[in-house]
Amino acid sequence: MEENAFYVALSLLVNLDASLYQIVVLSLQVSLLAVLIAAFLGFPLGAAVALWQFPGRGGVVVALNALMGLPPVVAGLGVYLLLSRAGPLGELGLLFTPSAMVIAQVILVLPILAALSRQKVEELLGEYREQFVSLGMSRARMMPTLLWDARFALLTVLLAG
């Protein structure tokens, strides 16, 4: 029985089954879009947490680090509860759509990208702090400079997401 299933799966791959490749393309599109959205939100969030001192900053860092281990089932259940008919966003009709999959994946990837980018920006800030102070740069002006200088490390972070 298992041997037959293997040959059927191999046959679908070799014969370029249209349904299979449609599913693969959709999966790649959803994952790519989710990672791009998470990067757009997570990199500045991580840099902001690294640059600014505010009450509760330690809690935010702990939360980001803890959310890196969020089980996918928990994220999926949370998105399901939000998007189901009885949920607060049920009227949008997004349940069981690619948009719902993107939302769930963003929830999973965002903490990873934010926490790792925070760590890298803090490292660079330690190296560049004296230069920034001597130039009189504000923290808001430091952020794009640090993100640019960390671009190769952030690319690695992006691949981790």
UniProtKB/TrEMBL annotation:
Give the record's membrane topology.
Multi-pass membrane protein
Swiss-Prot/TrEMBL GO biological process terms: transmembrane transport
Where does the ABC transmembrane type-1 domain start and stop, copy by copy?
A: 24-161
Instruction: Kindly give the InterPro entries that the UniProt entry links to this protein.
Output: ABC_perm_TupB-like, MetI-like, MetI-like_sf
SUPFAM superfamilies found in the cross-reference section:
MetI-like
Indicate the principal place this protein occupies in or around the cell. membrane
Q: Name one GO cellular component term.
A: plasma membrane
List localization entries.
Answer: Cell membrane
Asked if the Swiss-Prot or TrEMBL record annotates the protein with the keyword tRNA-binding, the reply is no
Q: Does the keyword Transmembrane helix apply?
A: yes
Q: List the keywords (alphabetical).
A: Membrane, Transmembrane, Transmembrane helix
The membrane-spanning stretches of this chain are 20-52, 59-83, 95-116
Name the chain's protein: ABC transporter permease
Q: Which organism is it from?
A: Marinobacter adhaerens
